[in-house]
Amino acid sequence: MNIIGIMAMTKDGVIGCSSSNTGLPWYYPEEIKHFSFTTLNNIIIMGSKTYYFLSKKFLSSRFTIVLSRQNNIKLPFATICSSLEDCINILTKITLNKPKSKIYMIGGATIAELFIKSQLLSYFLLTEIHYPYQGDIHLDMKYFQNCNKIIITKCKNYTIFLLKFKHYLLK
Ligand SMILES: NC(=O)c1ccc[n+]([C@@H]2O[C@H](COP(=O)([O-])OP(=O)(O)OC[C@H]3O[C@@H](n4cnc5c(N)ncnc54)[C@H](OP(=O)(O)O)[C@@H]3O)[C@@H](O)[C@H]2O)c1
């Protein structure tokens, strides 16, 4: 099983702004297209806080897994997992029926940290936003320091990198 991270952040590790309508401090339509196109019809995993920022149209055209510890929570267009173990078990079942689907961990910071620290990610598609936007949700850039980095796209406002993690537990 191959789980790939896909997120955008500034060089200072800002990934979100909880007071913004979108949850993000920036708006780059082409970057959103990259995210939408890459994840379309695939499996996406996210934390419950990220879920609320995404449209029903977006969620329903992907197999959406949401991590939440809330008892009996039901969210439209989503399968709920109460723990990381639960999530891996569900992924194992789904991928049997959808062997061609890719699996993307899309954030936010809490869930990204959980997956990175647990060495569950093989690659990371990281969009580095060039402008130093301010925000209140951060991901520590130290997690990417030892990764091999390949530039996928570079434009005026951001660069998209493919990062390969050296240690990866799932096979
Ligand atoms: N720039 C980007 O690429 C990007 C990507 C995604 C999100 N974001 C932004 O990031 C922000 C949200 O990130 P966040 O870190 O605050 O929240 P988050 O990671 O989206 O969600 C955190 C929630 O996940 C659940 N959770 C955490 N650990 C769990 C575990 N081990 N087992 C089960 N459930 C677990 C809990 O939900 P319950 O409270 O329901 O129990 C927790 O409150 C938003 O501003 C969003 O827009 C940015």
From TrEMBL:
The keyword Ribosomal protein does not apply. Pathway: Cofactor biosynthesis; tetrahydrofolate biosynthesis; 5,6,7,8-tetrahydrofolate from 7,8-dihydrofolate: step 1/1. It comes from Lyticum sinuosum. GO terms for molecular function: dihydrofolate reductase activity; NADP binding. This is dihydrofolate reductase. It holds the Pfam family DHFR_1. Residues 2-171 form the DHFR domain. Belongs to the dihydrofolate reductase family. The keyword Cell inner membrane does not apply. GO terms for cellular component: cytosol. Keywords: NADP, One-carbon metabolism, Oxidoreductase. Its EC number is 1.5.1.3. Key enzyme in folate metabolism. Catalyzes an essential reaction for de novo glycine and purine synthesis, and for DNA precursor synthesis.
